[in-house]
Amino acid sequence: MKRALIVVDYTVDFVADEGRLTCGAPGQGLEERIVQLTGEFLQQEQYVVMAVDFHTSDDPYHPESRLFPEHNIAGSAGRQLYGQLEDVVQRCRDSAQLYEMAKTRYSAFAGTDLDLRLRARGIQELHLAGVCTDICVLHTAVDAYNLGYQLVVHADAVQSFDADGHRWALGHFRNVLGAQVVEGGTVIASSQS
Ligand code: ZN
Prior knowledge:
The chain is an alpha/beta fold. The protein has helices spanning 12-15, 25-28, 31-43, 84-91, 114-120, 136-146, 163-175; strands at 3-8, 47-53, 98-103, 125-131, 150-159, 180-183, 186-189. It has one domain (2-52, 81-189): Isochorismatase-like (Rossmann fold).
């Protein structure tokens, strides 16, 4: 089955100490695993998607303006991928296997061409990584489920600022979205187990 890795919002603003809406240490702890997964998928000539939040300053029409401080502003350092992931992506920027996309809502599918691109490539299985488990990863997973994709969530490559929300979302992926939840690539929980 053709697979794609979707890395959600692994940016400076969501991960670094100085980030505007940071997960902090739990998010920083994912760096090595996300870089590893990205390398593996690229090496296996699978599709890799960097789904990155995109906002403009002072947007009164955006629903997040009422909920969160400004983050991932277009052209800002905060919207750069965090740590070594930026270096890996820099090196592959011309690769047809890599798609760097802007999203303006929690879900990478909301108002984007992601579903069209995945279908054009015959991709049926989506592997999810990034932050936050219980916000943008969750909303992306719910949309993917509704669109009929099989889901694999990498528990060692997702995190949140909210430990309870993180745990809840992992259970929801498994029990409600039928996802395989894996660690080190090995299934730790699926809806069948
Ligand atoms: Zn946002």
